[in-house]
UniProtKB/TrEMBL annotation:
<protein>
    <submittedName>
        <fullName>Conjugative plasmid protein (PARN3)</fullName>
    </submittedName>
</protein>
<feature type="transmembrane region" description="Helical">
    <location>
        <begin position="95"/>
        <end position="119"/>
    </location>
</feature>
<feature type="transmembrane region" description="Helical">
    <location>
        <begin position="62"/>
        <end position="83"/>
    </location>
</feature>
<keyword id="KW-1133">Transmembrane helix</keyword>
<keyword id="KW-0812">Transmembrane</keyword>
<keyword id="KW-0472">Membrane</keyword>
Length: 203
């Protein structure tokens, strides 16, 4: 393995652009360049597809074993309460309220425990990175092309859309005059601030 390509320590790296703005969150078939920051510099993640595949599998399992069953239970509760009140003319009493509350609590516990089990049973994927530029070579990072992106489908200009997040591009300038553009960095200004603090950078 090349000296510029190595396994990155998950506790040290920060993923910069995590499949936002590419047709939605973890969009199937999306292929783009993922970057990660480490104490040494900026790496291009060479196994980005494997990492995204792991998260897609996790989301699929959560939907299958937690989301759909709990949605069915919620629909069942609503149908039962409507039947009791509309058909049998039985008002929604504290008795039903307590039952519904207990069911909701059990569903929440099931969701938390189930999600934890799915997370534990999904084997981690190592982050393999190729060093693009070291921090000693970086002179400046500018944030450009800031916009809001719909995480469910495509880009959106509606700021009050609850399903949107802010993304932007990092324009990395080196002392040698080279330029690197990292697209679709989530929360770009805040992430740049955290990056400088985390790695003690003065750029």
């Amino acid at each position: 393995m090349s000296s510029r390509i190595r396994n990155l320590n998950r506790n040290e790296v920060m993923l910069l652009n995590f499949s936002w703005g590419q047709g939605g969150l973890l969009a199937l078939g999306s292929h783009y360049t993922m970057y990660a920051a480490s104490p040494e510099g900026i790496y291009r993640v060479v196994n980005a597809d494997q990492i995204l595949s792991r998260y897609r599998n996790m989301l699929t399992k959560i939907l299958k074993y937690i989301g759909i069953p709990e949605a069915v239970i919620i629909v069942g509760i609503v149908v039962f309460l409507v039947y009791q009140e509309v058909i049998k003319h039985i008002a929604f009493t504290f008795y039903y309220f307590h039952i519904v509350t207990i069911i909701v609590i059990l569903m929440a516990v099931y969701g938390i425990v189930g999600g934890f089990i799915i997370l534990k049973r999904t084997p981690p994927v190592p982050i393999i990175g190729e060093l693009v530029v070291t921090w000693n070579e970086v002179g400046k990072i500018d944030v450009t092309n800031v916009r809001r992106v719909d995480v469910n489908s495509s880009e959106s200009d509606t700021d009050n859309n609850q399903n949107t997040i802010e993304v932007g591009d990092w324009h990395v300038l080196t002392y040698t005059g080279a330029e690197i553009t990292i697209r679709d960095v989530t929360d770009p200004y805040f992430k740049l601030k955290i990056l400088k603090r985390k790695f003690g950078l003065n750029i």
